[in-house]
Amino acid sequence: MTLDKLALIQRIESLSDRDTKVLERIVETLENMKTNKYPFLGNFLNLSIEPSDDPKSVFICSMPITRELLNPYRIVYGGITATLADMAMAWMLELHLADSERDKFITLDMHINYHHAGTGKQLIATTRVLNRARDVLQMSCEIHNDRGDLVATSTGTFMQLRRE
Questions:
Q1: Are residues 137 and 93 in contact, defined by beta-carbon separation less than 8 angstroms?
Q2: Which of 9, 77, 92, 148 has an alpha carbon within 20 to 30 A of 118's alpha carbon?
Q3: Distance of alpha carbon 139 from alpha carbon 69, whole angstroms
Q4: Cβ(91)–Cβ(58) under 8 Å?
């Protein structure tokens, strides 16, 4: 075993039980990435697809609210909520509008408004395509908590990258 690994193990052994749970989640995230090919952050946030009555027009995904996502006021950090909106809009595009598996979408612009504190057990993002002009798409996203409160609304502009 290398000195770096030994030093890391010593540091891990000095962690609290709470911190060890976060570290365990990070390790699970890295393991999941090997099989599902999702990026680290999507795996770490534990995003999952929810059923939609019209999956081609409306995409829904959710994220559990966990302790490490809370700010000192015990609400989800605004940046985490914005990340959920960005990832949900891009995920819809890649799942339903990509011309091939190699096509990717990048965010050109995004705006978010916060309406209610990110509290509860889960955040649910509902996304729609507002407009498409060739490779540029305008999207919307509403984020509610599991209690039905509107937490945030977002719009984003995305560009499709076509890979040969």
A1: yes
A2: 92
A3: 25
A4: no
Residue-wise pLDDT for 4-54, tens only, equals 888 888 888 888 888 888 888 888 888 888 887 777 888 888 999 999 998
The H-assigned helical ranges of the chain are 3-13, 17-36, 40-44, 78-96
Q: Three-state DSSP class for 23?
A: helix
Query: 């995920």: which residue's tokens?
Result: 91
pTM: 0.86
| Length of the chain counted residue by residue | 164
Cα gap 38→18, rounded to integer Å: 26
